TrEMBL record:
The protein's name: histidine kinase
Keyword Nucleus: no
Main location: membrane
Location of the Histidine kinase domain: 395-606
Enzyme class: transferase
Record field: transmembrane: 306-328
Protein origin, superkingdom: Bacteria
Coiled-coil boundaries: 334-383
Signal peptide: none
Amino acid sequence: MAQIREQADANLNRYILSLQHQLDRHKDLPRLLASQQQLIALLQDPGNPHKTDQANRYLAWVNDTMGATDSYLIATNGITLAASNWDQPRPFTGNDYSFRPYFQQAMEGGPGRYFALGNVSRVRGYFFSHPVMQGEEIIGVTVVKVDLEDVEEDWSDPLLDILVMDEDGVIFISTRAHWRFRTLGQLPGSEHMLASRQYGNHSPRPVPSRTADRPPTLAALLSETDIARIRASRRYGQAPLLPLDIVRREATAQGDLLLTLIDQPPRSDGLDPQPTGHYLLVSRLLPEAGMRVAVLASLRPLETSVFRTLAIGLTFYLVVAALALFLVARHRLKKRYEAELQRAHEALELRVEQRTRELTEANRRLQQEMEQHHQTQNQLIQTAKLAVLGQLSAGINHELSQPLTAICHYADNARKLLERGKAGSVTTNLEEIAGLAGRMATILQPLREFARQNGDLRQSVNLQHLRQGVMVIMGGQLEQQGARIDWPDDLGGVWVRGDIGRLEQVLVNLISNALQAMAGQAEPRIEVGLSATDEEVQLTLRDQGPGLAEHTLEHIFEPFYTTKSAGLGLGLSISHRIVQSMDGRLEARNHPGGGALFTLTLKRTREHKQEPR
């Protein structure tokens, strides 16, 4: 019961907030309309058709903008002069509403509120009114009607019904259509609302006092005098205002009501007895709005819970008995299984120990294989270097031939000058010989760098120095084939991370492949491009050959894959591994303008002081 009441109270609060929100949206609209010049002008000149049309159209615009049901202007005699529905089949214009309490309240000088059934539209609505003042004189009344029927349609809880009652206990909003315009009587606290809201500042009707024979929580139902008064106000039309079919009612400790009532409309044949429902009624008074909001929470979940609890109790005892039998049987089985489990455990430990030894041995063999693989990889790289030494020899031979010839010439001249006693000229020749020897040492340096086994992959390499080493190695082959390489001009200011010997090996492989692809061309040319960011540097090598086939691009960096009739297919594979070891990338594709395009991406580093070789 406590849970049902708590839920009902929470839903009641939610519904009241929704209802008040819908009312508060429009409560100040009559006061704003009362200050509009179009309406004041019509009240000053009621018979003017132009002013009447302006007022009608203005009220229709306000009605559409604010979402109200109807808006209209009433003269002091109660006759409607303008209305938002002026162009509808049954407009309010010309109707007399002087009998409505909201009109009487506004004529007394204050705002009015009232709920009633529309006299013309027959639609339930809540009416707000406000006097139109000219100085100290009331010259008319503005009225806004709000349709509250949407509130019923939005409620979808089958175990909770909503009731909204007026000060007389007449239900005018309900989620059950056959309960509308039925009476529930006056609940506690309704007396002062009845006196202050029903008649405004008129003399209120006497409120009957409580007597000992009346229930403390539900006053007497409407008398014939009350029904006659309500019908005279035409508030609910010709509704019979019959009481709800309450079979039994009982007060709770919190002041709420437990009701047993017939909750279905009567059958037309009148033969079957009507079903009854048990409800908890929780209500709250809204004196300012002139209404009381209540919820009827069905006690069906409570009844279901009682039966479910009894069923659970019986089931519990049956389960306990079955559990006792189960535990006895389980104890017997446990002893038998424990021995089998122990044997299985010992067998499992033996298998785990054996498997552990096997895995340890397999891990040891794997580490040995990885070490051998690493050694093999370094050996393959070194072997690939040695395979390029033929090209290096041709380049060294080409570069050293001129300095050696010059050294012989200068030495022969120095001998002759010594014979003639020209010591100063001999010194000059010796200086030239020393310079040529230094140049030859510089030429031989790439050979030593290129042939060494390992290098520091984290050192800074200047691209200009890298270019010089590559040109020394490839100079002979380039001259022999009549080819040229177009290098960028700004290589000296770019530094990358890696090993200069291995980078030379990569570029020599790429240039050699490009020259082989352009074999037979009259003027073979290789274009080297450079692009750099703060983090990376990209070198691109493009040849003028036929390009690479699609299936070749898929396998080009795989070991032993080659499209040449001679060769092992290790050059590009080893180059790819070298670049990866430097945290770089080597990629291949075809250039849109023709030929193959290889892209070498390396990490960029800061400038490093390094003497050129």
